[in-house]
Structure formats: C-alpha cells, structure tokens
Amino acid sequence: MSVPKQRIDSLLIEPGCATNQAKSDKARKAGCKKPLTPGAAAGGCAFDGAKIALQPIVDVAHLVHGPIACEGNSWDSRHVYSSGAQTYRTGFTTDMGEFDVVYGGEKRLYRAIKEIAETVRPPAIFVYQTCLPAMIGDDIDAVCQAASARFGLPVIPVNAPGFAGSKNLGNKLGGEALLDHVVGTLEPEFTTDCDINLIGEYNVVGEFWQVQPLFEALGIRVLASFCGDARYRDIAVSHRAKAAIMLCSQALINIARKMDERYGIPFFEGSFYGIADMSDCLRRISALLVAQGAPADLPARAEALIAREEARAWARLEPYKARLQGKRVLLFTGGVKSWSVVSALQEVGLEIVGTSMRKSTAHDREKVVEIMGTDAHMFDELPPREMYRMLKESKADVMLSGGRSQFVALKAKTPWVEINQERHHAYAGYDGIVNLVAEIDKALHNPIWAQVKTLAPWDLQEVADEGESAFADQELRHG
Ligand code: SF4
C-alpha cells in the first residue's frame, strides 16, 4: 500500500508551517508541492528524506524495501553519531530484482525481516517503502503487521516512496510514521518536571553532545531527541515530556504540532547556532518549563549558567577577532542557519556580504532583516554561474555552504567551509561557535590560497614572453 493521498495533502498544507500561514487561502489549498526536476536526484526524494529523519535512531534496524540503488542513495552520508549502538550503520535492504517485480516483493520483505529479527535482534525494525514496491503494490503495512506478531518486536512501516515528493515531504512522512506507530507506545520508568524533547536534532558530528551537558547542568533531562543519538525506547516514551524545542521548522513541524495537540507538550522554535541563540534557547525552555510546573528558580540558574558559558566562549574567541576583523563572508545555506549563523559570525567581527534564504520561512526572513538591518543581502536559489559571479563581485574572502556548492568556491579560488550536513566539525552550542570560527580562520589563512592565486611557472613564462615581445614592438615603433 502506498502512502495515502490525504496524508500527503495534509502535510503539504501543514498549519504549523509559517510559509503556509503567510499564503492566501487559494494558494494554501494548492499546497506547496513543487514538481521535481527530472534527473535532479542530488536533491533527494521522499524516501531519502524519511531515512534522513529516522536513521539517527541508532539501535533499530533500518530496512530499505527496494532495489539496492535506493539504499545507496542515502546511507551513512550525514555523519550522525551514536554514543553506543551501531545497528543504524548497517545498510539493510531487500535488494529487489526483476523476479520480484514480476511476482511481488512481499515474501522477500518478510524473509528479510525474519533474518534481521533472528540474527540482529534489534528493539525494532523500520521498513522503508521505495518507488518500485509501491508501484507494483507491495503492502508493507500488512507485511510489517504480520511480521511484528510473528517475531514479537515492533516492525514499523515508513510509507514514503521516492515519487511521493521532495526530501522535505519525506522528513515529515518519517515523522508521521513515528507518530502513528512509536510515540506513546511505552511508558518511562520515571518522569521529572524538567523532561524535554528536542525535535529536529540529528546529532550531526556529535552536535547533540555539545548541548546536552548544558541542559544537564540545569537539571533538564532530554527525554527524547528526534532523532539524534536516539534509542527506540526514547521515542516511544517521548509523550511524557513537559516541553519541546523544535530546531528546524521545515523538517519536523508536524511532530511538534501534533505532540502539542495530542499530549499537551508546548514547543518553541530555537537554534543552537551562535552564542546569542544558544542563550536564548536556554532562557526560553526554562521559562516554558516553569509554566509547566518546574521549580521557580530554574530561570535564575539558567542565567548563571549563561553568564558563565558566554564569558568562557568569548574568552576563547578573543584571539580570532583581530585575525578575522573585516573579512567578508558569503553564506550559502538556508533555513534557520541563514540567520542564526549570521548573528554568530557578526559577533566576531566578520562582515556578511550575503545569505541565501533557501528553505527559509517568513520568520527566518524577518530575523535576517532584524539582524542585518535590511533585506538587501538576502537571495534565494542561485544557479552556480550566478553564485560564481556573486563571489567575485562581492569580493568575499570565504564562502560557507554545503558540499554541493564547494566547487563554485574552489573555481573562484575562494576559501570554503562546509556548514551543512556533510560537515566534519560540530558547530552547536557555545563550543560549536568557537569550532566554526576556528574553521573559518583555518580556511582563510591556509597558505594554499597564496599559491593557488599565483600564476603557474609556465604561465609566468608566457606572461614574461608576451611582455618582452610587446616591449620589442614598442622599441621598433619608436625607433
Ligand atoms: S525511492 Fe524512488 S526516487 Fe528515491 S532513490 Fe529509490 S527509486 Fe529513486
């Protein structure tokens, strides 16, 4: 069974999404489904999005029902770390072939689940639908139900075949699978008045571990992180949290909103990037928890922690200020990072020459204007040729972007720092901003740029030869 049309339609008009709320009734009804560009697989399909959202649940087996190429599309490319279980790093797939297309792939799926249940014995198995079995009509819901009863463990269907839509829609479909089959199915051993959920935190290069100690220092327990370094049980008991922080509105807003509706868990949108935003998050979650019954001294303790951590971060940033003063940065990211990173970089004296607003909400745009004083430096989707022109014309000293844009920077002989999901350094929290500034400093002052910008010996010779013959011509002309 493929993903029901009503479900896709309801996600495309998600009421919690600020972009949707800013639209007219007619435009909202039409949804936000953009046709995918044929061949543009690098942007990811709905299956890719669902896998990205759920794979950071590290102790479950993620089984991709489809041809091997689908699994290869997204496996282990995002550096999401685990503090223990490594089951999530194994690429389980049913590896469907032509025979299955003719006779159906349900039996093959059942056998794969059986093998995983008997050999790996994970606490749960997540089964991902892909285009091929969805098109031939494999009913993964029925197979998962039968296998769950037979092998005595939760087998969760994730109905997000690639053709359903974009990666972003797939993120939300992954969230729906959790809401339908996992959240609220177990009870925690105990609860506290300071239990929270983080929604949209994937523990990329261990970023969750940079903020978790801050919450712990305040006595705040992260009951579940959706889904960074999460265990199946964390998600199953997450309905008992008292409040939540949503970290990327575009991805899992449906989880935040529905958990608020179903279980009365209030949430706000925050960011862990930059000193001011990290402090803001700690303040807001403390206030929200007090309103939910937490001890009244929590905000005061949060202020003391903020003062201590900010002072420590500024002391560590001090040596970079003189080296980075006035350096120009072009930021090509999107979403919440388009403004939260801007404020962080301005704090150390870098000048932002532009920031992209891809995947950003109306609120994100307002924040950029608030921080930069104007919208003159915002731009949307840019083709590589335009990006190259912008780099040259703005005389940017460094570009911050995802891996796909790195070659534009390198072609423009401009230092480049990876800031999106394939990054190798953790940028969250107070320690994270110090890491980011250190990476920018390293990129800017790497001696390779002086060499790259110098003409090669053979080109130098050519220029010298041209200069000599021009001089000779001149001599001849003027006698
Ligand atoms: S799910 Fe469909 S679109 Fe996505 S990788 Fe597989 S075949 Fe391609």
Features:
479 residues; alpha/beta; five-stranded parallel β-sheet; four-stranded parallel β-sheet; globular; binds iron/sulfur cluster
Secondary structure layout plus pairing:
Elements: H1 5-12, H2 18-21, H3 25-29, H4 46-54, E1 61-65, H5 68-74, E2 92-93, H6 98-103, H7 106-119, E3 125-129, H8 131-136, H9 140-151, E4 155-158, H10 167-181, E5 195-201, H11 208-217, E6 221-227, H12 232-236, E7 243-246, H13 249-263, E8 267-269, H14 275-291, H15 298-324, E9 328-332, H16 337-347, E10 351-356, H17 362-372, E11 378-379, H18 384-394, E12 398-401, H19 406-411, E13 416-418, H20 429-444, H21 448-452, H22 457-477
Parallel strand pairs: 1-2, 1-3, 3-4, 5-6, 5-7, 7-8, 9-10, 9-12, 10-11, 12-13
Helix pairs in contact: 4-10, 7-9, 10-13, 14-15, 15-20, 16-17
Bound molecules: iron/sulfur cluster.
Iron/sulfur cluster is lined by residues 45, 47-48, 66, 70, 73, 130-131, 161-163.
